[in-house]
Amino acid sequence: MAEAAKVIDEGRIQRNLEAGRGKSREEILACLKKAGEAKGLEPEEAAALLQVEDPDLRGEIFQAARGMKMKIYGKRLVLFAPLYLSNYCVNNCRYCGFRRDNRSIPRKRLSPGEIRNQVQELENLGHKRLLIECGESSLSDLDYVEEAIVTIYGTKSGNGEIRRVNVNIAATTVDHYRRLKAARIGTYQLFQETYHRATYEALHEGPKRDYERQILALDRAQEAGIDDVGLGVLFGLYDHKFEVLALLYHARHLEETCGVGPHTISVPRFRPAPGVDFRLPHPVSDEEFKKLIAVLRLSVPYTGMIISTRESAELRAEAFSLGISQTSAGSRTSPGGYGARGGEEGEMSAQFQTADHRSPDEVIRSICELGYLPSFCTACYRRGRTGKGFMDMAKPGDIQHLCGPNAVLTFKEYLLDYATEETRRVGEETLAHHLEEISTPGLKENTRGRIQEMEKGKRDLYF
Ligand code: SAM
Ligand code: SF4
Fold this sequence. Notes:
By secondary structure, the protein is an alpha/beta fold.
């Protein structure tokens, strides 16, 4: 209790929210002016922005968030896909299709051969980054996960390969996190689901019910040397304004104790799931959802933000402009869900229903049409630019000039190897435009030269 209370002081969050109410237009604009310097916001300031209801002022918040997204991330959007390994679970999280007591879904754990098939399916769609996920069970223990990671990195299909495996599995021990680090994972993500302790305990049953175990997991991961960690909340379980401030306090705690804040924040919203009869206690409207994304963008400008296919194509498009920097595409949320055989059976054993059912190629084309540049870049992680080292370079802007060229190069790979004719046509225009935008002397020519090498067959070129 004492340790968890150091991370989240619920009374303080409630006081911040109370104090943030009814701020004048001038005070809100002053907050946004400060946010514009990209130094982030105090939770008190974020509270004031979250309380804004006036449509004009809300427009100002969106405008500021759009400016911040452009300033730090430009037009890039990094793509990934989730890979569900197993849906066996000892926990009984009320909202989840994989919950122990859900007898209506077929249970499945992928064998090494099935993992290989799924990875090839994903590689043939152009993916280079995966996020592996599974329920908590002795059937998917750490030995199993380690073996799965070795299989994933070892599986190739044509020019396809997976270059970064991020992991979202149950909270575990420092020793186990050391093993994940040794397995060369990228980011370790763990969602708190809700930071409100009483709600957390009411909605969870099984080992995950231990609030302490969950909230201190990322400290343990950092202690084990995993320096890129990801936070998240399942929006809808409790008041979203409370959750946003709690995320900021959690981020601040990691920065103070581990020397670096979270690499990413994910913003999943609850979705219906097969066999789950759950009345969502605090639904978050689309307007509130967009505002919370904008406030997070302004509060922690250097933390990547992730949106999934839980959201519709329309909402995702708006979220990209307000601050999202990473997105999944073509996702299946059941073990074995990718490929022709994954189809119908997959729907029945899914963790939740997705809202964006487009193929990755369609998503990528629409990203281009919206004016963004799809990126499959994994360079920072592979060059050892992670954790504090990454942030120390990102904050003065020493990485951003490499991100553009790396996005262009990895997108070129996609266009050469995987794009449909229509996407290739739109994508080449996008590529040419963003190549021209590279402003660092020498880098533009260097990138152009590498593109020519890729056209002659070279792959995996990056800075
Ligand atoms: N089992 C691990 C855990 O719970 O930490 C691994 C991650 S679980 C497969 C991925 C995430 O899916 C959960 O952390 C939760 O936030 C989210 N999730 C579960 N049920 C959901 C639902 N019905 N709608 C949207 N997201 C859901
Ligand atoms: Fe299991 Fe995770 Fe689903 Fe909870 S959210 S039931 S721990 S898979």
